[in-house]
From TrEMBL:
It is found in: Cell membrane. GO terms for biological process: response to antibiotic. Residues 21-244 form the ABC transporter domain. SUPFAM superfamilies: P-loop containing nucleoside triphosphate hydrolases. Gene3D superfamilies: P-loop containing nucleotide triphosphate hydrolases. Keywords: Antibiotic resistance, ATP-binding, Nucleotide-binding, Transport. This is ABC transporter ATP-binding protein. It is a peripheral membrane protein. GO terms for molecular function: ATP binding; ATP hydrolysis activity. The lineage of its organism: Bacteria, Bacillati, Actinomycetota, Actinomycetes, Nakamurellales.
Length: 324
């Protein structure tokens, strides 16, 4: 089953009420810093959405406003048609943040029981631990849990109120590949029931693998919004690779549609919106061999759309970027 079909749908997604999240013309200033610059966004109920962007793009600032932790300087935010605080007070929203909030000397199960006791209506502790895939470590002290297990515990706690909307702010930062995979497996299984999930990430791989929709932000603005395939298509060109000793970069750049030429020893890489023209030129006018045409991936789209040279394949962080 594809990530999309595993994540989409479910009983909750049939809701026809107000969208889970709506942002209209939202700006946020911190003194001189214009962190969010006019974001419009609507997340329908039941959708799994990644807010993807490099460091400093404004993801956390936006999530904090959706959670009612801070107010927009301008614009409006509603959650299920209500003020964010009102939706949270009704138990419609839970969040999994990166750090904090856990007592190291309690066990996993004690932590969940303690939190459950704070809710008037709570899902059974055993059920949320199972959903988070940590039912086998209920007796383990939180301080002895790995970073990934602690995040799955935070996820379990977030499920106690059985929220309609789950918000996760870079939930897997610092986890190893296996921890990340287990964490997302748990989220994905849960989301198949139709819960709405909005997560911020700067891991392209996570957005590609787990979101139905990617909202790409850069410098506080949405620069692309769609499925991973649609975002890849925005940076629509293809790459033509060939073996060509003594390639003439200027001649290659002069072919219509060529955006970028890279020459590495005997290999040329030509990024172009008209790959056929490049291939024709290479085969008819040069001694090029091993000509290959490939579609650009999400990483190229990310670089093209966010202007960041240091995009990440999933196990490295993108370089910090300060909004200008
Ligand atoms: N409380 C604050 N005071 C001043 N500037 C802030 C504050 N919070 C965020 N900023 C600035 O706003 C911009 C957006 O920051 P934000 O944390 O929302 O980005 P982000 O996309 O979540 O980045 P990261 O991936 O690093 O968490 C940055 O330039 C940041 O330095």
């Amino acid at each position: 089953m594809s990530a999309e079909s595993a994540l989409a749908g479910g009983p909750r997604s049939k809701d026809t009420g107000p969208p889970a999240v709506r942002l209209s013309g939202v700006h946020k200033h911190f003194g001189q810093v214009h962190a969010v610059r006019g974001i419009d966004l609507e997340v329908p109920s039941g959708q799994i959405v990644a807010v993807l962007g490099p460091n400093g793009a404004g993801k956390t600032t936006t999530i904090d406003m959706i959670l009612g932790l801070s107010q927009p300087s301008q614009g409006e935010i509603s959650v299920y048609g209500m003020e964010p605080q009102q939706a949270i007070a009704k138990g419609l929203v839970s969040a999994v943040m990166q750090t904090g909030g856990l007592l190291k000397d309690l066990t996993v199960a004690e932590t969940a029981r303690y939190m459950a006791s704070l809710f008037t209506h709570s899902r059974p502790v055993a059920e949320v631990l199972e959903r988070a895939g940590i039912e086998g470590i209920g007796d383990r002290k939180v301080g002895k849990c790995s970073g990934g297990e602690q995040q799955r515990l935070r996820f379990a706690l977030a499920l106690l109120s059985d929220p309609e909307l789950l918000i996760l702010d870079e939930p897997t930062t610092g986890m190893d590949v296996e921890g990340r995979r287990d964490f997302w497996a748990a989220i994905r299984q849960d989301a198949a029931q139709g819960r709405t999930v909005l997560f911020a990430t700067h891991y392209l791989e996570e957005a590609d693998a787990y979101a139905e929709r990617i909202v790409l932000v850069r410098h506080g603005e949405v620069v692309a919004d769609g499925t991973a395939a649609q975002i890849k298509a925005l940076a629509s060109g293809r790459i033509v690779r060939a073996t060509l000793p003594a390639a003439d970069a200027d001649k290659l750049r002069a072919i219509p549609g060529v955006e970028r030429v890279e020459i590495n020893a005997n290999t040329v890489l030509v990024h172009s919106s008209d790959s056929d023209a490049v291939a024709r030129y290479l085969l008819n006018n040069t001694p090029a061999r091993d000509v290959e045409i490939t579609a650009q991936g999400l990483e190229e789209a990310f670089i093209a759309l966010t202007g960041d040279a240091g995009a990440d394949r999933g196990d490295r962080e993108v370089q910090p970027k300060v909004a200008s």
